[in-house]
Every structure is written in C-alpha cells, then in structure tokens.
Write a structure and sequence with these properties.
With about 375 residues, the chain is of the alpha/beta class. Helix content is about 40%, strand content about 15%. The protein has 17 helices and 14 strands. The strands form 5 sheets. A 5-stranded mixed β-sheet has the order 10-9-11-8-12, sandwiched between helices. It binds glutathione. Glutathione binds next to helix 9, strand 11 and strand 13.
C-alpha cells in the first residue's frame, strides 16, 4: 500500500540545486509604473483572501498522514530486517524490540491499541526512499540523524530515542585491545550506512589503512565476519551487542572500548506534515516525561487519580494537550499503559537484564546523569 504525498525534497546535490534554480523575476520600474493605484490597492486588498484560501487548501494536505493512518486502521512502520532487541520477529511472526515499541506507542496514542501496526522490514539502502515514497508512515529503524539525510531526502528526524556511537567487534584471536591497533585490517561494512563514512574518517585521521568487504544485508555481513572473511565488524555499538549474539561462538568476539562517532538514532518522518512530526516527536517525549515523573505501566491507574499538576497534564486529567495535537487527551496515558515509559521500554528490550545487556549510559534521564531530556507538557 502507498500513500501519495507531494515530493517536498530538495535536489540531491548542490550541482542539481544549481541547475534547478531559476533567476528570480525582478520587477522592472517601468512595468510597475503601469499599475494604477486602484489596481495595486485591489491586489493588496485581495491578498488576505488569497492567503486564507491558500491556507484552507494547505491545512488538510498537511494533516494527511494521521488521516491516512486512521482511515487505514493501522500504522505502517519501517523497521530493520531483524536486529535483536531493536526490531525482530519471533517464530510466529510477532515483532518486538525497542524500535518496534516506538511504533506501538504511536499506535497506542492514536487507536488505544498498540497492536494496530504493520511492520515493513527495510534494509539500509532502501529505508529513506521507502519513507519518502509513502510506503511507510514512519521509519523506526536504528537510523542515525545526520544533516544530509534531512536536506537531501526531504525527511526530518523527530527525536533521539537512543544515543549511540560507532564501535568495532573483533575476533578475540586478533589480539587487539584498541582501535588504533587495527591498521591494515579488513572491515565488514553494510552499504548505505554511516559506518562506512566513519571508518574512512577515523583511518584517515589516524594515518592508517584498511580494506573493506561491503555487503548489502546484515545477514551477509554476519556470515562473512563469522567465517573470518574480514577481521572487524564496524557499526553502532548497540548493533554490535545485538549481532554478537547471532555469531556461532559469541564468546570468541569482543567489542573494543573505542567509540569513534556520534550516532543519534531516532524515528524519521517526511517533511511537510507538521502534525504528524509533532505526534511522533511527542510520543517519545511522553515516554521520557513519564519515566521522569515515576509514571509506568504499573502505576498508570494510580497516576490517573494523581493531584500533581505535571502528572495530570501528562495523563490528560488536566488540559487538552492531546486534542491540540489531533489526538485524545489521554494519549500519553494510553502509551504508558499499553507500551510503558522510556525506562521500561529500554530495560525490557535492550537493558542490563535483557539478552543484550546494554547499560543505560548516555540514555539515562538527564536527572540521572544521562542526556535523555524531554520538554514539558504544558
Ligand atoms: N545507524 C547507522 C547504521 C544503520 C544500519 O543499517 N546498520 C545495519 C548494520 S551495519 C543494520 O542494522 N542492518 C539491519 C538490516 O539491514 O536489517 C545508519 O543509520 O546508517
């Protein structure tokens, strides 16, 4: 299924931008002097009307993603093919994970039903085009927020749900303890990822050389690395934790302590639909605010009776913040009740007690020494 949306993207390259740009028409004094005062006044007088009708036409177009999702009765969410802890399917085809839970949270806010989501697995090279074409409503797939992904694809990142960085997984037999010892080694990299670019930067900056084995899918990469066709698997540290579990002998591999880049991961939407952007962004913020206020899936019913102003605004017993966003006022209560707060989602899928065992680190709340921070609901 696809939703037809206008193509709001900028040209892909500066040279294309240069070709596409036409000189602006500069009004000539002689041409302007032909305007009579009455003609000019009439033009100015009709401007508010023209603007109003332009806005009236623009409003429904801008709100089309939420409408399309409601009419369809389900959110369509782009995820990865299978990254344990982030988005993977069990034997029965049920999806779970940290990225999956963001999609479920959006569905909970809209439908009061976290199950109304269709998941579309997308590989690294196809993900942004799929979102832009309208094949998915939101991309929630371990994607790094970079400037060019917004400017060249006509997309916009809504939040940072996971602060990550690029690391290295190596065969223990290699006997290295630091990335600086990787001179001359070969790297398995997935095409279309920030990983390729980071490795190039790091090796250039440190005057080292390397070889690459570039493959299109994660499965191919993992097989190649496991079989020893490359020495190093380089990608976001969170993914290294997930992928190490799929190797034949996980204990024979180690994640080096070096982190060589910033990889802020989060959901992405198309530019041009501010209402939808707001909903996706505030879904994440609601979960972070809920954790900060001590509201969880276990305490939500008590929170509905709370007298605390901040809790009342979060759960919708005060104000009409949800309605202002095109949702119902209990939108955040639905998210927390059906999916959980940020900390619950983190711990369940990727935290220290999960299979991945990733410490919260930077993803602790700002009140706990991390940098997860949400603006207030008020
Ligand atoms: N965060 C990086 C990497 C994302 C990425 O696609 N990583 C690969 C692993 S190297 C992956 O998760 N693949 C999963 C898949 O193809 O389904 C980015 O946005 O470019």
């Amino acid at each position: 299924m696809s939703i037809d949306l206008p193509n709001p993207s900028l040209p892909a390259s500066p040279s294309a931008a240069g070709r596409a740009r036409r000189p602006l028409p500069i009004p000539q004094p002689r041409a302007r002097s032909r305007w009579s005062f009455r003609g000019r006044f009439a033009a100015w007088a009709s401007l508010p009307l023209a603007l109003a009708s332009a806005l009236a036409v623009a409003a429904p177009a801008a709100a089309q993603t939420l409408n399309a999702v409601r009419e369809r009765g389900a959110l369509v969410c782009g995820v990865s093919h299978g990254l344990i802890g982030f988005s993977s399917q069990d034997d029965k085809g049920n999806w779970s994970g940290f990225d999956v839970d963001l999609c479920r949270a959006i569905a909970a806010a809209i439908f009061d039903d976290a199950g109304k989501v269709r998941f579309v697995p997308l590989d690294a090279t196809a993900r942004f085009a799929a979102l832009k074409s309208g094949a998915v409503d939101v991309l929630s797939r371990n994607s790094t927020w970079t400037m060019s992904r917004e400017t060249t694809f006509g997309l916009i990142f809504a939040a940072v749900t996971y602060y990550d960085g690029q690391g290295f997984l190596v065969h223990k037999a290699l006997n290295v303890e630091s990335a600086l010892e990787l001179d001359g080694k070969s790297f398995c990299l997935q095409t279309g990822t920030t990983g390729e670019l980071n490795v190039a930067d790091y090796f250039r900056a440190n005057n080292m050389t390397y070889a690459t084995v570039e493959l299109a899918s994660l499965d191919e990469i993992l097989k190649a690395y496991d079989a020893g066709h490359c020495d190093v698997f380089a990608t976001d540290v969170s993914q290294l934790h997930a992928e190490r579990l799929r190797l034949a002998k996980p204990d024979e591999h180690v994640i080096l302590p070096d982190v060589i880049s910033k990889e802020p991961l989060g959901p992405v939407v198309r530019q041009g639909d501010d209402q939808w952007f707001t909903i996706v962004k505030w879904t994440h913020f609601a979960m972070v605010n809920a954790e900060e206020l001590g509201v969880s899936s276990k305490t939500i019913e008590r929170a509905m009776q709370s007298d605390k102003p901040e809790v009342k605004r979060l759960v919708g017993t005060a104000g009409n913040f949800g309605e202002q966003a095109g949702l119902s006022n209990d939108w955040a209560a639905r998210i927390v009740r059906l999916v959980g707060n940020y900390g619950e989602v983190f711990e369940r899928n990727i935290g220290t007690k999960s299979r991945l065992g990733i410490p919260r680190g930077l993803n602790h709340l700002w009140t706990m020494g991390g940098i997860q921070y949400a603006p207030p609901i008020r």
